[in-house]
Amino acid sequence: MGSTNSNLVEEHKSGHISWQSPANIALIKYWGKYPVQLPMNPSLSFVLNNSVVKISVDYTHSTGNEFRLASFTLNGQPNHVFASRISGYMQALIPFFPFLSHTILNINSHSSFPHSAGIASSAAAFSALALCICSMEQEVGGKDAGGKTTTEDNFFRKASYMARLGSGSACRSVYGGMVVWGKVRELPGSSDEVATTLDKGKVNPVFSTLRDAILIVDDGRKEVSSSAGHAMMQHHPYRATRIKQATANMRRILQALTEGNTEVFAEVVEEEALSLHSLMMSSSPGFILMRPNTLYLIDRIRNFREQSGLELCFTLDAGPNIHLLYFEKDQQQIGAFIRESLLTLCKQGRWIDDAMGDGPVRILEGR
């Protein structure tokens, strides 16, 4: 992506922009990366509907030649750790958005879900922030990086590229529905640099009603961050095998999505989830993010599926919490199963009821 020569013009000395962006749950897992934030293997995810982050940015033109993050709040409270990460990210974007070099920002972030609930909060946050900055560029200069009026497609591609620089999986939260990130031979236009939506013609309508019950096993801070886990893949003994596995699983799940094959879909999703955690355990040093109740939940979910004959499966992100995936037609039965058999294994009986969403939206509001 090129840089822009847009400057804060007189009529845009200040402004206010808000975007709401969803978290996403990966079905084919992204694990391991190359500089800068490029994936070792392709991934596929879908965005959630209710688990969202809203970012509001107030910007002001500075007479000096410096960028400054004047304030950052998370759910109404200052958060110095994340503020430092945001500030570093914004400064890294200055070559792409030179107007940031003389801009003062006040950023407010609000999450609809707990920070450590097993949902990718950083993906939602950085995608919303990237969308805000791309909208700010339009307001400031009205042009894209090439000096032309930005088309909707180019706007979201650029936002996906910029979101990736903050958090790799954030590039997938810029779009709705099923989203692919990484070069896939079977998908022309797919890329390691930006995410792309999976054409609806390639997804059987049965998958449009996917729901996600997020079972909270542990909401504490992870012992090993995802960034550290990604770094361990550089010299992982199973790195080459993992790339081969993910590529093959991508082909399998794309075919299952097209054909409406929910059985193969479930097989691939669960294999990917357990492979992700096996890679963590076989890293050097190895680490375990699952908890005993994670395993108990998996066992109960598999037994229930066998006994009930319902179409459901589980996945996990880099943490202990379970994402129970099922279809809307079975919502009543799955809800009863969760309440009667699973909540005793969840921390304080907590779970989040969610579903596939349509992607980010710009929030138009007064200052």
What can you tell me about this protein's structure?
This protein is an alpha+beta fold. It has 8 helices and 14 strands. The protein has 2 domains: 10-201, Ribosomal Protein S5, domain 2, CATH 3.30.230; 203-355, Alpha-Beta Plaits. Strands 1, 4, 5, 6, 7, 8, 9 and 14 form an 8-stranded mixed sheet that branches. A 4-stranded antiparallel sheet has the order 11-12-10-13. A two-stranded antiparallel ribbon has the order 2-3. Helix 2 crosses helix 3 and helix 5 packs antiparallel against helix 6 (262-281). It is globular, with a radius of gyration of 21 Å.
Entry keywords:
single chain, 367 residues, alpha+beta, Ribosomal Protein S5, domain 2, Alpha-Beta Plaits, 2 domains, eight-stranded mixed sheet, globular
